[in-house]
Amino acid sequence: MKHYLDYKRLFSSVFFAGLLLILGLIPFVFLHAETAGEIRNKIEQKSADIEKLEAEIRAYQLELEGLGKQKDSLSVSLKQLDITKKKLNADISVTQNKIDKTSLQIQNLTSDIGDKESSIIVNTDSIELDMRKINELESESFVEKILSNEDFTIIWNDIENMVTVRESIRDNIKMLRNTKVVLEDTRGQTIEAKNELTRLKAQLVDQQKIVIQNTNEKNKLLAQTKNSEANYQKLVQEQLAKKLAFEKELRDFESELQFILDPSKLPNAGVLSWPLARVFVTQEFGAKTGPHRTYASGHSGTDFRARTPLPVFAMADGVVKGIGDTDGICPGVSFGKWVFIEYNNGLSSTFGHLSLIKVSEGKKVRRGEVVAYTGGTGRVTGPHLHVSLYVSSGVNVSTVPSISCLGKILKQPIAATNAYLDPMYYLPFYVPQP
Questions:
Q1: M23ase beta-sheet core domain: which residues (predicted)?
Q2: With 275 labelled, which of 178, 333, 344, 403 sits at a CA distance of 20 to 30 A?
Q3: What backbone phi and psi angles, to 5 degrees, belong to 261?
């Protein structure tokens, strides 16, 4: 008889120990809930700050677009640079707030992970206790218990206890499995948040570099013009003359290059992705000479609106075959800062007029990877992104001795005239905005 009373005592002690453990966790849970609530409030505040700053950025953008429609003058150029700097500083504030918000989200997720790991430990310990109880209850065979006891009530109590413990084990195992699934999901969210944090920190560094560059551009413009409108207009005319002369030189040179285009080796339409997050075409490629636009005359690529520095994405998987800055040799006549990528689908592209280059020659890039930021370097009347597209077999990074810039040799992508392609044919379907 005493033997079975010990089992009951053991069961009771396990029950009360578990109850005390749960009661002991209650203050911790409420304490943590309060902390989690504070974190959520901070996250909401960061979201509100970001929304306010983004509204400010949209206002700057509208102001820049309005200035872009005004007649080119020194005062307009200086104002564009000033507003661009304000917008960049607002961009930096947004990025910093996003970094802070993401850090808070990681803190919250890390705390959730701690809770779930604690829950797993509690469930595991509970299963171990139940398993030990089962082993002790089953230490004697059922027949031996019947033969050694006259009180069948005790035996039935033991049987009920065994059933209860087994059900408890099943419930704890189910809870354990569910908690592990949620834990894995939470850990996955934490990894994603940390990756986003890394991306945002890199973006912040880029934006800070572009602010410095913007300041240098303004100082350079003031030094060149001595803050005189007449000097500014003279500078504009000199750069325009150089630009037109260089474009003629380049077209004459490229028209002499021999290249046989095999249309059957070109990829299908729509194989590329957009180089910008938002697209607005400001100038089309070439001229319409048939069913498609060609480079028989007109513009050597497609221009996209980008009043302020925006991330530029690789349009497909490929390799960076060259980078450069024509302004370092002959300012204001060509691409300025450029990136040339050869894609794996037989096409190649040049991104021109960039403010900041993020890749190096020989780097493999993936579709959608940031390779640069838009800007206003080279031959531009205002900041934008220029995209030239070619058949890969008809273009190379080469050098061009320049007559317009006497004694200067420019390095940039050079292609046979018939190797140029219309970027819009290979990009996603575009619906012009009003």
A1: 298-391
A2: 333
A3: -85, 125
User: Using CA atoms, how far apart are residues 198 and 208, in angstroms rounded to an integer?
Assistant: 16
Rounded to 5°, angle at Cα 158 from 152 and 162: 145
Tokens of 66: 């309005």
The residue type at 333: V
- Give this prediction's pTM: 0.73
pLDDT band of 64, cuts 50, 70, 90: confident
Residue 422, token pair as written in the block: 């219309």
Which CATH number does 228-426 carry? 2.70.70.10
User: In terms of Cα–Cα distance, which of 411, 234, 249 is closest to 330?
Assistant: 411
Spell out a b/e string for 330-349, using b for 16 or more CB atoms within 10 Å of the CB, else e: bbbbbbbbbbbbbbebebbb
In angstroms, the CA 57 to CA 78 distance is 19
Amino acid at 420: Y
- Spell out the domain ranges in the chain: 2-216, 228-426
High-pLDDT (> 70) share of the chain, %? 79
Within the chain, how many helices (H) and strands (E) appear?
6, 14
Specify the pLDDT at position 298.
66
In this prediction, residue 230 carries a pLDDT of 92
User: How high is the pLDDT of residue 294?
Assistant: 66
Both structure tokens of 320:
């960076």
Structure tokens at 255: 């028209």
What is the number of residues in the chain? Answer: 434
3-state SS, one letter per residue, for 121-166: HHHHHHHHHHHHHHHHHCCCCHHHHHHHCCCHHHHHHHHHHHHHHH
pLDDT given for residue 134 in this prediction: 66
CA distance 223 to 333: 20
User: Residue 85 corresponds to which tokens in the numbers above?
Assistant: 């700097």
Q: How far is CA 355 from CA 75, 215, 235, 279, 286, in A?
A: 22, 13, 21, 18, 25
Residue 165: per-residue pLDDT:
65
Helix spans in 228-359 (H) = 229-255
Apex CA 136: angle with CA 132 and CA 142, to 5°?
A: 135
> What is the rounded distance in angstroms from the CA atom of residue 26 to the CA atom of residue 343?
59
* SS3 letters across 37-61: HHHHHHHHHHHHHHHHHHHHHHHHH
What's the CATH fold of domain 2-216?
Answer: Helix Hairpins (1.10.287)
Single-letter amino acid, residue 35: T
